[in-house]
Structures are given as structure tokens and as C-alpha cells.
Amino acid sequence: MHIRDVLSAEELAAVTARSDLRAAWLLCCNLLIMAAAFALAARWPNPLTLLLAVALLGARQLGFGILMHEAGHRLLFRSRAVNEWVGTWLIAPPTFGNMAAYMRGHLEHHRLAGTEQDPDLANYRDYPISRSRLRRKLWRDISGQTGWKTLKRIGLGLRHLPRLDAETRASLLRGVGFNLLLFLLLLALGQGWLYLLWVLAFLCVNPLVSRIRQVGEHAAVPDRLAADPRLNTRTIVPSFLARLFICPHQVSYHLEHHLLPSVPIYRLRRLHELLRSRGYYGEVDFPRGYLPLLRAVTVPG
After folding, report:
1. Are the CB atoms for 93 and 68 separated by under 8 Å?
2. pLDDT of amino acid 2
3. Are the beta carbons of 286 and 91 closer than 8 angstroms?
4. Is-above-0.90 flag for pTM?
5. Across the chain, what does the average pLDDT equal?
6. H or E segment at 157?
7. How far apart are CA 243 and CA 249, in angstroms?
8. For residue 5, what pLDDT band results from cuts at 50, 70 and 90?
9. CA 261 to chain centre
10. DSSP one-letter code for 253
11. How far is Cα of residue 121 from the mean position of the Cα atoms in its chain?
């Protein structure tokens, strides 16, 4: 049964409608939570608030990546040009993202999901894995080992900047520009030390939450080589805390994104509710939170 046989033309039009206001709100929310994390650490600097600030900043870094994904799909704003400009100049630079390069691989993931040719398959092919192996993966993330490799790649790129192609060179320079502006802004406010929290979040939290999100989307699904997204992709129904720290901007509704990639991220939950109410999902399981999910994709050992 095709999804277009379940929803009316009016419902399809509603869930695929793009909204500049909703898009601007998501971007503002990401920036406001980022600012609040810095303000919390500056106003009440203690181990608890610093830890909370780093966790929030790491999730917001993932949030920028999610918004880059949306802009790359041309779904965030109504205008293709606005998506391109915002994605390239405002959303990708905070984490040294290259939206054009990312989308080339990501569109292949959409085209080849459910096959052995899926370019993302290496990230979840081995699941379910042992719990001890998952703990080692998560420890490498939270201890900064994964993030350090990313930071070294950025440093290597900057070292060999003249040899890079124009697209890669420009994305790196935009990343440097954003991070320099962020540091100078914090310095002008008399809180330059707060930039270290941003770096720490990039090293230790962003890799962690990115891995958990990725595992949630495709790891240990009912049939990773099935053509039906209901079998090769997963949606997780998140709590408020999960949305704040692990899956910003409704990104956990990943099955809906694969079913109908023309739906903006801010309408995925509505699509999920419509399809569930029509019985489209049948026996599909939707984990309620990431702890149950991590237990489900691992085995004792």
C-alpha cells in the first residue's frame, strides 16, 4: 500500500507545505538554546552547570547539522535560494559542514537505503552488537577520541588549504569564520573562556549524540535489506529530554522522512500521527526513548 493511498490530496499538501516562519523558529530556537547554555555557565559556573552547558551545546551542534540536512533537501524554507544561502552561510559553518558534499552522499543513502550499496550501511551493518562493544564505542565518543579525529581532519585541511578543491576550501574557511566570530563575541562579553565549552562539546558530545541518533535510525531494524522503509528505517517517539539533548527538531521521526522525503522536518510528527491513525504501520514498533532503543539493538556480552 502506497502512502499516497492512505492520505488525501489535501493532507499530502498540508504535510509537504514549507513555512518560512517555522524554519526561522527552528533556527532561532537552536541559537537561543546555545546562548542560554553559555549564559548558564557564565552566570553560575560550577561543575554541574558546565556539564549541562556542554551537553546542550553538543546537542545544538547536532541541531545545526539537522538544519543543514533540511536546507540541503530544500525543505527548510520555501525558496530554493534561501535554503542554499542559509544552509551554506549560517547552518553548516558552526560545525565545519559542507552542505553540498554532504547532500551528494545523503541523496545516495535515500536512493540506495535497503540495499548493500547504501553508503551509510557501514555505520549500522553489524548491529545488533554486544553491549560491551557499544560501551566501547560510546566511550570513544564521550572521551573525545572520535571528536579528536574530526578535529585533526579539520586541522589537516587547513594546513593544506591551497591544495584543496574550491568547494572544500570555502567550507573550511566559513567554519573558521564562524568559530572565530563566536570566540570574539564571547571575548567582547568578557567571557572568552566559554568558547572552550563549545570545543569540548564538539569533541565529546556531538559525536556521542550523533552516533545515538544514527543507531536509532537504521541499526538492527527488522530487515535492513528490505525495500519497504517500514522494515529498514526506524522512528523513535522521543521524550522532552531526548528532544533537548539527543534528537533536536523532530529528527527522530526518520521513518517518515524516508517514506516521504518531501515533508519538512517540522511536519514529520504530524505525518507520523496521520499514518498511525490510518493503520499504515501495522505491527511496526516505535521505541519510546533511546535507552530502550539501545537495549534493543544490543545483546548481552
Report:
1. no
2. 78
3. no
4. yes
5. 96
6. helix 145-159
7. 7
8. confident
9. 15
10. B
11. 17
